[in-house]
Write a structure and sequence with these properties.
heterodimer, A: alpha+beta, 13 strands, B: 707 residues, 13-stranded antiparallel β-sheet, 30 strands
Chain lengths: 216, 707
């Protein structure tokens, strides 16, 4: 299993960080350097939720070959916002299949508001929507971007989810502001109107995540 | 001026919509001169770099090397430090006549470019050095053809007025402008004093040129130079055939450039530059693991809450905090309020530690506790108390404006006395570390890079809160710090100029061995007492008091030390030089990252004076600063350089690696180290110990609260 989490260990070595210490964390840097990528010890919290049969996503990082991981839903708050955690200790904020936050990916989305797009997808209609994204920038400040997006139904598509094949409508959501353009893809299951598969843009640093629901 | 271009709609595939590589390519490349400043080849332009950029560059043509560091201090002002090696500059042949020259430039953009008029920069080249490149200029640049072509024209004085010069137009203002004292850019060399009386004096000359961006990678540059290269022609065999120079530059994706250029029809040179953008670390949000998920109230942990066992070192609350790199030191619960005292041992941004501590508390404490008061600590003393409401955490977790709203709803106050009852068994604390170290000494007058590399072992013991015993021992393995052959010629007590002796006569070294006590004498007040081997060259006693309100921009401090010079072997012995030294200090946070500091007092050589410092600290902690010290030691007695000055940097570890690790790498570069204006280098001066958890710093990195 390749981890999604970016690794900065070469830098750590160059910076002379490696060494041994009474602080186990600092010593780990060296260990992880020697063993290459750092051994992924599955997060026990992840395993606990995974074993209860909580909903699961298989998630891959577009920009990095073979970088994928598994997320499981940990909790849903009073506002219907869900937190999903991965076996390599990343997390996603989700709402009805739309990513509204990421944590631990190097160029995180602190928050997002894709509610207009979600409404269009749920209603199965094309149209123009507004989407908002708050990024954590390199100066540790929150920075909110607004995008104008066009949601368009492309075609019917079958998505093989393993145990069964979902009959879906494929939608494109093409967004832009002055500097950035991206396109999200959503496969919306007919009938349930659930997002069974998607590709969602996170930030310029991270790029795009591809998500697929794993039927339990 | 850099104009942001709109990204072209380049769709490489349906899945990969944004190609960051392309985003970089369409950005206009700003030419860098062989002096490291915005410019063509030798000539400057009327442009400045992007705010905050650090531009590192090196130039080499037969017999001359230049290493430049330019910092765009503000959107309009830039400063440059340069180390040049010019063979035969002083005649004499071979390396013996080589000039090792350190110089500073300063430039300021007077006028922005508009659709109809150029941007204009006024600049000083080599204004505080020995005058090898001493010159002043006004340069104007205008962009055409969608910014691909830039045309520059300018007027130069000093060395930039040495070819094709004419009577100074400023002579109309005053006749005194018409003459420039010989030697200002001549071979004799100045003393490092600011030579105001010579600026913009003497003959002036016109220069100009163009830069054309052939494609996103290649730029062609041509210029008419007003530099006659007189000294190099006379002494170093430089052949000045034409005033025309030309260059071809190749730009890389990250902004780095390599140029090949032809100089005055006789020399071929090569130049490379790399820009560093402090505002843009590789991993803007860090790569540390996700924070604990905020769970609904009445979770299992909260239901199994046991008010009695929480004061134990291994309570589930302590363990959950420890999992986040936080050490719980105290807790008191009264009514609906929990007050906790904790040490953040992991996150460079204290706001992130607060955010994680708050989420752990929300997951661990019973539902009826609605207010969290978090006491931050540094070196055993409480430094601030942040009050957060549980309901705000719950409502703002994924709020689009949750970062600012959570900051606005938090309250920050002084924590002169901790209001959290201590947890049993936290002290004594013991820590140790064995690490490699690199001890550089940059740009000394004979060798640009000296450094020692070795192994350091450091340990600290805290028997009780605020009391710290610490030691560090070093074993150099390799290096050339001990190869300096420059005996001190200082007429002052050798308080710093003996530094090479410390490298030469030591093997295993005690870097420091101290007992420190940190305490809070009162509201907004902090105290430190240190005794022992304080630094490489001095041991003794040091005491400091700091007044710094949590919410204010001003801090005041006073420090008094009695120190004795240590033996060169850096073991336990002392030499027979001792001194009482100390300073009164004022610190002011001007906002937008600009920090000022003024220290007035007595220095190590017994001289009285003041140090003026300005730093620009980016919100992420990347810091670049400059300082100078004037004391009652005369410029002549001070020796080369006339007075102490320098620039300094500090790069946080998390900026480099993305990992949540505290600390950073920094160094101070002085053109020359002398004995006047030298300050004791005691560790843990209070201002930097304390400020990280104060409101201004918390605000700077508050985006990390939810990270």
């Amino acid at each position: 299993m390749t981890v999604l989490r970016p690794l900065g260990f070469m830098f750590a070595l160059l910076a002379g960080l490696s060494g041994c210490s009474s602080d186990a964390e600092k010593s780990n840097l060296l260990k992880e350097l020697v063993s290459g990528q750092g051994e992924v010890v599955p997060d026990p919290t992840f395993l606990a939720y995974e074993q209860t049969g909580a909903p699961t996503y298989l998630v891959s990082l577009e920009a990095k070959k073979q970088a994928y991981t598994i997320f499981v839903r940990q909790t849903t708050n009073a506002k219907g916002e869900e937190t999903w955690i991965s076996l390599d200790k990343l997390s996603l904020g989700m709402k009805n299949g739309m990513i509204i936050a990421t944590r631990g990916m190097g160029g995180d989305q602190l928050a997002g508001d894709p509610s207009q797009t979600l409404a269009a997808l749920k209603a199965g209609r094309s149209g123009v929507t507004e989407r908002f994204v708050t990024l954590l920038n390199g100066e540790s400040q929150a920075e909110t971007l607004a995008f104008r997006c066009e949601v368009e139904r492309q075609r019917q598509a079958d998505v093989d989810l393993g145990p069964y094949t979902a009959d879906t409508d494929l939608f494109y959501e093409t967004c832009r502001n002055g500097q950035i353009r991206f396109r999200n893809l959503f496969w919306v299951e007919r009938g349930s109107r659930n997002l069974v598969q998607s590709r969602q843009w996170i930030s310029e640093t991270v790029g795009t995540l591809a998500l697929r629901a794993v039927p339990r | 001026m850099i104009k942001q271009r709109t990204l072209l709609g380049l769709w490489t595939s349906a899945f990969l919509m944004l190609d960051p590589a392309f985003a970089d390519e369409v950005q206009l490349r700003l030419p860098v001169s062989t002096f490291g400043t915005p410019g063509l080849i030798d000539m400057p332009t009327g442009e400045v770099f992007q705010d905050g950029t650090l531009q590192l560059s090196a130039t080499n043509y037969v017999g001359t090397q230049r290493y430049n560091l330019t910092f765009q201090i503000t959107p309009r002002a830039f400063g440059t430090f340069r180390y040049a090696i010019i063979e035969n500059y002083d005649g004499g042949g071979g390396v013996f006549g080589a000039r090792y020259d350190r110089s500073f430039d300063f430039g300021y953009k007077l006028v922005d470019e508009t659709d109809y008029s150029p941007s204009i920069v006024i600049g000083l080249r080599d204004f505080g050095g020995t005058g090898v490149y001493g010159s002043e200029y006004l340069a104007a640049t205008k962009h055409f053809i969608k910014d691909r072509l830039s045309i520059t024209g300018g007027l130069g004085w000093g060395r930039l007025g040495s070819y094709g010069g004419f009577s100074n137009p400023l002579g109309l203002v005053s006749d005194s402008f018409k003459t420039r004292t010989e030697g200002n850019y001549g071979a004799s060399g100045g003393t490092g004093q600011l030579d105001f009386s010579q600026w913009f004096h003497g003959d002036a000359a016109l220069f100009g040129g163009l830069a054309y961006q052939i494609n996103p990678r290649l730029t062609f540059k041509a210029e008419y130079s007003s530099d006659a290269y007189s000294i190099e022609s006379a002494n170093a065999g430089f052949d000045h055939k034409t005033p025309f120079n030309a260059a071809l530059s190749y730009g890389f994706k990250n902004g780095a450039e390599v140029s090949v250029y032809a100089l005055h029809g006789s020399e071929i040179g090569i130049r490379g530059s790399i820009p560093i953008t402090p505002q843009k670390p590789k991993y803007p949000s860090g790569i540390e693991e996700a924070p604990p998920t905020l769970m609904p109230r009445q979770t299992q942990a909260a239901l199994s809450w046991d008010a009695n066992s929480v004061r134990q070192k291994d309570s589930s609350l302590s363990m959950a905090l420890k999992d986040q790199g936080l050490t719980l030191e105290g807790i008191t619960i009264e009514g609906d309020t929990a007050t906790v005292r904790f040490v953040n041992g992991r996150y460079p941004a204290e706001a992130q530690a607060l955010g994680r501590a708050a989420r752990v508390l929300a997951n661990q404490l019973p539902a009826d506790i609605t207010t969290f008061r978090l006491e931050a600590m540094a070196n055993g003393v409480t430094t601030s108390r942040t009050t957060l409401r549980r309901s705000d955490l719950e409502s703002l977790e994924y709020d689009l404006d949750g970062s600012w709203r959570s900051f606005a709803r938090a309250n920050f106050e002084d924590a002169g006395h901790s209001e959290a009852a201590p947890i049993a068994g936290i002290y004594p604390k013991f820590n140790w570390r064995i690490t490699p170290y690199l001890d550089p000494s940059l740009f000394d007058p004979d060798n640009p890079v000296r450094a020692d590399f070795g192994v350091q072992a450091a340990a600290s013991l805290e028997p009780a809160r605020g009391l710290v015993f610490s030691a560090a021992v070093r074993q150099p393995v390799a290096g050339n710090l001990d190869t300096s052959t420059r005996p001190s010629n200082s007429v002052l007590p050798h308080v710093r100029t003996d530094s090479a002796e410390y490298a030469k006569q030591s093997d295993l070294e005690i870097k420091y061995l101290t007992a420190e006590y940190f305490f809070r004498p009162g509201k907004n007040l902090y105290g430190r007492a240190t005794v022992g081997y304080l630094e490489t060259m001095y041991g003794g006693v040091s005491g400091e008091v700091l007044w710094k309100p949590v919410n204010g921009p001003l801090a005041l401090g006073a420090e008094l030390n009695y120190v004795k010079k240590r033996d060169f072997d850096q073991m336990f012995g002392f030499q027979n030089y001792d001194i009482v030294t100390g300073h009164a200090s004022a610190y002011y946070d001007f906002g937008r990252g600009y920090l000022g500091q003024l220290d007035v007092g007595r220095y190590l050589a017994g001289d009285y004076g003041a140090t003026f410092s300005v730093d620009r600290e980016f919100d992420n902690g990347f810091r670049v600063g400059a300082f100078f010290t004037l004391t009652d030691v005369s410029f002549d007695d001070f020796g080369e350089g006339s007075f102490d000055k320098g620039i300094r940097f500090s790069v946080p570890v998390d900026w480099l690696t993305g990992a949540a690790t505290q600390g950073g790498y920094g160094t101070t570069i002085r053109p020359v180290v002398r004995d006047g204006g030298a300050r004791l280098d005691v560790r843990n001066r209070l201002y930097d110990v304390v400020r990280n958890s104060h409101t201004s710093e918390l605000e700077d990195r508050w985006g990390k609260f939810w990270r």
